[in-house]
Structure formats: C-alpha cells, structure tokens
Specification:
Elements: H1 3-17, H2 22-26, E1 29-37, E2 43-44, H3 46-59, E3 64-73, E4 76-86, E5 96-107, E6 113-120, H4 122-129
Length: 137
C-alpha cells in the first residue's frame, strides 16, 4: 500500500470512529478481522468489531478520533490517534477524556485490516474517568 493510500485509509478510519455508525467503522476490517485494545478480550469478526465500536460510541456520543500520523514498517502499519469525548452515554460520568494512543495494523490481501492491536494508557484513561486506583496490599 502506498503512503498516500495508507494516509487516506487512516483518515477515513478516524472519521468512521467519529460517526456514531459502528457498521461504517467495521467495514475497514476483514470479515474475520480482529480488534484488541490493550490486553482486553479481542473482538473477532465484523459484528463483534461493530459491537465494540458501538460501546464506545454510545458511552461517548461526542467522540472525535483524529489522525496524528500513520506509517508502515515491515508488514505493519502504525496508526497514531488523538481521541476526545465526554462520557455522557447511559450511566456516564459526564467526564471529558483527551487521550492519545496508537493501533498496530496488519492487512489482508484485499487491503482491509486483518488485525488491529490498540494501545492507550489505561492508568491515564482511568484517571480522566475518575476511577480510583486500587490500594496495593
């Protein structure tokens, strides 16, 4: 994939995260694609990926994901993002989050994401959401 095509793909992907349309987001993945965030349980298949996206979109209805950079190295692309949103969904805290992170992508032969391994600073996310750290014993 050329640099220009990768950048265009990443720009559309970031926009799709921000649309409140989980199906529009999921089509960037292969039918059997896989999305994993930090060490969480992976979402496998477009339906599961759409459900994961929907959970974020519902929890953060004003969510915006913006592309910071995207690059290829060996057989992986790295998509660096900036995410903002207010946790105003059902049962939300009303807290605003402002995070950066990245995803490592591998592609299938059709140019769709076969696997995405997402990374964000969980401790910082918890802090912004007002989650108290568990006391160490």
């Amino acid at each position: 994939m050329s640099d220009a095509r990768l950048r265009e793909f990443a720009t559309r992907y970031a926009t799709a995260w921000s649309t409140q349309d989980p199906e529009r987001f999921a089509v960037f993945y292969a039918e059997d694609g896989r999305l994993q965030i930090n060490d969480g349980e992976p979402s496998v298949g477009r339906a599961a990926i759409a459900a994961t996206a929907a959970s974020y979109m519902v929890a953060f209805p004003d969510m915006i994901v913006a592309l910071i950079s995207v690059s290829f190295e060996d057989d992986r692309a790295t998509f660096r993002w900036h995410w903002t949103g207010t946790n105003n969904g059902p049962g939300g805290t009303g807290r605003f989050v402002d995070m950066t992170g990245y995803e490592e992508w591998t592609f299938n032969g059709d140019g769709l994401i076969a696997e995405s391994r997402g990374h964000l600073d969980q401790a910082e996310y918890d802090r912004q959401m007002g989650v108290e750290a568990e006391d160490e014993l």
